[in-house]
Design brief:
InterPro entries: PTTG1IP. This protein is mainly alpha-helical and 146 residues long. 53% of the residues lie in helices and 7% in strands. The chain folds into two domains: 2-55; 58-129. It has two helices and three strands, in the order αβββα. Strands 2-1-3 form a three-stranded antiparallel beta sheet, with no helix packed on it. A hairpin with a 4-residue loop joins β1 and β2 (27-30).
Length: 146
């Protein structure tokens, strides 16, 4: 089917996706599907056209390899960056949790000291009420029981 387009134009040949155009002898041939790249005995890569007429097969392969390489590099960079960000955010989250735990611990310690002080004040009032607490401002209070 592709050989019918030989000696015509490249555009007419490449309308069929299974055809390959060779500029050396202006022939349209079936694309060799058994091999990925057409063998040089059929047509050299610099003179072969497939898909579009304005770029040769060699440049097409190089361009596709460059694009694929760029995609792979960008995916690798994105994955590494995401892993780094995730690790950094996890570290930041742990630091925030540690700060929060330290803050709560300090709040509990201060509340405990406040409750302890309130209990001491209450017990001192009770001791004063029943005369069990010696007044430090009255120097003769210690001689009362003698």
């Amino acid at each position: 089917a592709c050989s019918a387009f030989s000696q015509k134009s490249c555009e007419e040949c490449l309308k069929n996706v299974s055809c390959l155009w060779c500029y050396t002898n202006s022939t349209c041939i079936d694309y060799p599907v058994r091999s990925i790249f057409p063998p040089s005995s059929l047509c050299s890569l610099s003179n072969a056209r497939w898909g579009v007429c304005w770029i040769n097969f060699e440049a097409l392969i190089i361009a596709m390899a460059v694009v694929a390489g760029l995609i792979l590099v960008s995916l690798t960079v994105c994955c590494c960056y995401c892993c780094y960000c995730r690790r950094r955010s996890r570290r930041r989250r742990l630091e925030e949790e540690e700060e929060q735990i330290a803050r709560k611990r300090e709040e509990r310690r201060l509340q405990s000291l406040q409750r302890k002080h309130e209990r001491k004040m209450k017990h001192d009032e009770i001791r004063k009420k029943y005369g069990l607490l010696q007044d430090s401002d009255n120097p003769y209070s210690r001689f009362e029981n003698e």
